[in-house]
Amino acid sequence: MNQAIRNTWVVAIAMFALLFGSLTVVQFFEADDLNANDWNSRTLYKNFDKNRGAILVGGDPIVESVPSDDEFEYQRVYNEPELYAPITGFYSLVYSATQMEAAMNEELSGNSNDFFYDRILQLFSGSQVEGASVELTLDPELQQMAFDMIPDGMKGSIVVMEPDTGNILAMASKPSFDPNVLAGHNTDEVTSNMAELEEVAGLSPFTNPATQSLLAPGSVFKLVDTAAALESGEYDADSELDNPAELPLPGTNISLPNFVNGGCAARTTVDFSFALEQSCNTPFAQIAMDLGEDAIAEQAQKFGFGEAYKIPIPVTASQFPTGMSDDLLAQAAIGQYDVRVTPLQVAMMSAAIANDGVLMKPNLVRTVRAPDLRVLDSPEPEELQRSLSAENAELIQQWMVNAVDRGIANGAAIPGVEVAGKTGTAELMAGSEGNNSWFTGFAPADDPEAVVSIVIEDVNLATGSQLTSPNAQKLLEAVLNK
Amino acid sequence: MSDITTVPKPRRNVELLLLILALAVGVGANFLVGLDQDQALDSDFFVQGSTLIFLVFAVHIVLRIRAKHADPIILPVVTAMNGLGLAMIHRIDIATGDQAANRQLLWTGMAIGVLIALIWLLRDHRVLRRFTYISLIVSAVLLMLPLLPGIGMELNGARIWINLGFATFQPGEIAKITLAIFFAGYLSTNRDLILLAGKKLGPLQLPRWKDMGPMVVAWLVSIGVLIFQRDLGSSILFFGLFMAMIYIATSRVSWILIGLAMIAFGGFVAFKLFPHVTARIDGWLNAFDPEVYNRIGGSHQIVQGLFGLASGGLTGTGLGQGRPDLVTFANSDMIIAAMGEELGLIGLSAIVMLYVLLVSRGIRAALGTRDSFGKLLATGLSFTLALQCFVVIGGVTRLIPLTGLTTPFMAAGGSSLLANWLIIALLLLISDAARRPAMTGPISSGRQPQRGLTSRIKALGSKPAKNQDPHRTVEVKKP
């Protein structure tokens, strides 16, 4: 009988061994997957009980966690919510986290590997790990200026960036929203607030228009054509370009006209400088058809097209279409047809030209600090690629200065300073009044301190030009006066 | 029969030392719970702590007087588990605003009171053998009570409860013990018959059809519980209990094979016929299927439990720092998930080790005791504990389908607590008999002979002696 009892014990021990095995599988091997599961509100709950790190601009918290007296220990609060909403995003029980709140979640929540020792300490002390704070590269005054420049009720974005570091000094968009209404702990209230936000015309609370909306660039794309032409070696500063008032598009019975109100009509052959100054369409359409689609596409890629970035908020890849017939390529060359860019991409193009041909990676994070102020991370400027040779960059810089000095971008001129600029107008629909009105440029031209890109969507020509170049001038002046 | 030399030393001081350690764990855990929830040293903590200390020391003193050779490990192990259970229930109370910990404390008091009474009055487990058939009748009545209209009630889909007016009770928990007593009594009396008869089929000796009777009864009871009470866990438990005991009584693997075949058949039919069994299996296999997850009675509970365990990870969130209250029935069916969340794999492993220790000490008592009734009873009860842990923890970790069983000593629930402390009372008594110095004379273990009761025990104790070794009997029959 005793042998049978011993055997029974062995069976019991075998059952316990199985239990140890399955506990290990769940708590060790599958733990990461389970914690990442979408149904697991626990991770979110855990984070809402945590003192999440602040997001700072110019030393002041624009987002912080304050003690809460409801079922969670902390409440996320957005100071100056509308000014920064597209960048900070929101941190919501219902809709999860977006933008900076999502991109820097590991650091803000204190879950990153930098906190390994803090977590070990926490095991013994029982105290909570506090999240790291994230200081942004933004300049609060520039940000406010940029935000105020976009009239309420209009849709637009402004990006100000340092061309040599890629640091973004301002990134404002309208319409904006108040993330506080999504950060509440009452899920019903948050859901209905979100429904209200989604009713607002032109607003998508989940995206940052400056980095994620894809717009027709219009004439600012001519900078790509110019760079492609110079880089091909087939064109140089002395090239004479045909400038007919209308260019018949091959294979169609339509023709591409120059801008009616500009000074293009004055000459039938032009140089690059004049073509850019007056933003003539036909020379660039001709260049594109001569060089071919691949050359333009390759140059676009060198400026950053076709690639998505994390800065650390997500940047959508800008698009240059492929497989076009010549007539479509001609339209694409002037930023129409299916060419789509983010406002940040336009700033990157200018920045590469301003930075003697080297494209720096845009960046929004200055420093990440532990609660004890120890610096955990401070991103170094990062070179993405060379977009064009320094000589060619210098040529385009000079032509862009001419465009401000004598051309249609003269609204951006600052007395005593060389300002480089390029305007753009993208027709949204044939025959409609609405255009995307663009400006991109930098100053001072010989040693650029800042790049500015402005887009106002769906405006008529007159309003658009009043909102782009003159505002760029104010922003550049503000940077230079600092 | 016993080839294990008994330790003549009572070891009560060892027990005292371990008991202080166990109370430090249990009461300490309760202290940490309050500390981390910013309600350190509230009145609940003092009431729960002091009551638990008072109760287990009372048991310790009773053991010193009435069963001084009882295993010194069993009581401290159970104390630690009961203390940890109270702490976790208290912790979940703080999160949910419930008062389950104080109810649990009340039941702990009642259970330990019954344990003291049993040890004090019974003194020798062999007395229970006289109640073999009474136990069967009691088991039948207990199992049928929840089915009676008026007194029986259905809760969360299982009809296993009776309403006593002031409290609800699961008679099935007690039936576990009375059935074990019946099987132990029946098998220890009839094992020769069951052993000797039957055809041989290769290496297996098959039982006779008429000896299959008890097996069929056990099978019917299990199936009945499954059908009428919709309690999959108890059904598995009853059948496992009986299989273990008949195997120990006969040492025949053929019984196990027959039993497994019956389980397979019964299980398959139940899976096909009964929606509640089908739902359990479905929720187990397809737990992460959105449709199953969102269904009422689907896999939501088990998946949430897995999330709890996962968020605990290796080291746990720390007592009071997790969110065990997000799991339904966190303090009863899913207390293992709650423990795993806040204590981590390391803490949970320590708890499972306590069960391993407890089961092993129970088996040790079975090996040491000299009567086959005691051996059967102790092994049966110990194996039940092991099986219950396996079914509960295996269910929570998705090793097997989830059933509605309680985690012994830790889950909130009075009936379970009472029944398990009763099992401890029996194991303590049997271990006392096992560890008592072997005497060649009448069994009095250095105590003064008792009147009446003891003389009958003597008679009972000596009776099975002539057939004590089944192997020897079989060998005699061989040509």
Description of the structure:
With 482 residues, chain A is an alpha+beta fold. Among the domains of chain A are: 35 residues; 244 residues, DD-peptidase/beta-lactamase superfamily (Beta-lactamase, 3-Layer(aba) Sandwich), CATH 3.40.710.10. In chain A, the strands form seven sheets. Chain A has a six-stranded mixed β-sheet with strand order 3-2-1-6-16-17. A five-stranded antiparallel β-sheet of chain A has the order 8-7-21-20-19, sandwiched between helices. In chain A, a hairpin with a 3-residue loop joins strand 13 and strand 14. In chain A, helix 11 packs across helix 13, helix 11 crosses helix 14 and helix 13 crosses helix 15. Chain A is elongated. Chain B has 479 residues and is mainly α. Chain B has a domain of 313 residues. In chain B, strands 1-2-3 form a three-stranded antiparallel β-sheet, with no helix packed on it. In chain B, strand 2 and strand 3 form a beta hairpin. In chain B, helix 1 packs antiparallel against helix 2 and helix 2 packs parallel to helix 4. The longest helix of chain B is centred in the C-terminal third of the chain and has 34 residues.
